[in-house]
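Possible regression after last week's pipeline update?

I re-ran a chain I had predicted before the update to compare outputs. Posting the input and the new output here so someone can diff against the archived version. Not blocking, just want to make sure nothing changed silently.
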Amino acid sequence: MRGWLSKLSAAAAIAAALLVVIAPAHAEKRVALVIGNNDYKNVPKLQKAVNDARTMGDTLKQLGFNVMVAQNLNRQAFSETLLAFDRAVEPGDTAFFFYAGHGFEIAGQNFLLPTDVPAATEGQEELVRDASVLADRIIERLQNKKVRTSILVFDACRNNPFERPGTRAVAGGGGLAPMTQLPEGVFSVFSAGPRQTALDRLSNDDTNPNSVFTRTFAKELLQPGENLVQVAQRTRRLVSEMAETVKHKQIPVYFDQMVDDVFLNGAPKAAGDAVKQAPPSQQVAALPPVPKVPKEETVNAPIASFSRHNGGWTVVFSLADPALGISWRIGNSGDFRETGFIDALDPRTRKRMPNPSIELPADAPAGTIELRYIDAQGEMQGPFPIRFDPEAALIRDQRKILDMTATNWLSFREFNGLLVYYTHLMSYRCAIREVRIGIDTAVPDKVLKMPACDSRDPGAIPSNAQPYLKLAPQTKSVSVELTYRDGSVSEIKTFRR
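New output (post-update):
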């Protein structure tokens, strides 16, 4: 403990918080900070968060991490501990952050609650923000330190800690919002999915000192030859199966922005017989070498956007440099077809601009589009493979439209009473997993039923669907929150008459 924190100004506060620091730092090392908060002053106390932090600390030590374990941090101690973590990591390091305790989501942002977070009621969200630690800020700090790999694990998906009998709670889901916009090199795991709560135990007879998630995740981390995605997937399956035995829904989720696979305990299993694994304590995050690719795949590779309409798909290609002609084909065999030209001159080449789009039928199967183009010097570039996944493209396209047209999600109309229409949401329902609304409340607490997605005609509304609700005449507002198919959750939008 003295080796890590002797330079901190609040040494006395941190000395009570930090339990153990293990192993000195070295170049391109593994550094971990694990935090467990049980003893909350103004919101319900927890029982297993400190044990979870200790277990994760022991696990990460076995994997060669220099570990800082902290417990029961108030706001100042939390800040000082993060500062110590900042000082411990260096460019190229692998950083692991684990938090067990109360977490809270406000307007799509995740906050980790120190033990002295104040009790708050409806309309006092700013109290919670100011007294808590923004999870995204931890990622920013690690990015600023230029670490190579950032792994963040949150066992904080519990009930709303601000709920009190006879009061209206701070608006929020009680758990954490998905992290879908992570920077490159970041891997994040949550102990439960959106609007799910994480189990501390399976029954009153369950004497395991750790939560259901942490006991499973810690064990899976030690499995040799498993990459982070495999660890997260196995944890998700095992935790889900255990929760099902007590008729509870808990499905851990992960968000992956790693360029390559990361192995924390040995080489991939396929290479296990050929490569003798080094002891875990001497390993660093093993990133397989990036395979060499043909030159044409590294220069000016195009990107494509897919839009679904009644007649099928429109695919628009974007090239960084000017082109004199564009051609394409489906798959890696057959003739290339020219896209033709549009009635416009490219000022960079002073020639007619190639048409940057193609059309695909509505029932086009998943596959690869190969694209090539003639550059301004007359040389052929490509072909470049572009993956086409109709289901993923449809979800992405409709999600983009919903984000851009949020003011149209709901509309009021007075006709034989007060009606609220959600036709717009129904038209783009293929991107939506769940719609929740709140009538005269800022907390959406009712599920709005939607027809199933019809990929053959995704924008059509079934004739037997009712795209509106009848409301009481005195209704003043309706709030709405969307859970998208990728698990992310929208901001809560409020529509007033």
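Follow-up from reviewer: compared with the archived run. The chain is about 20% helix and 30% strand. Marking as no regression found.
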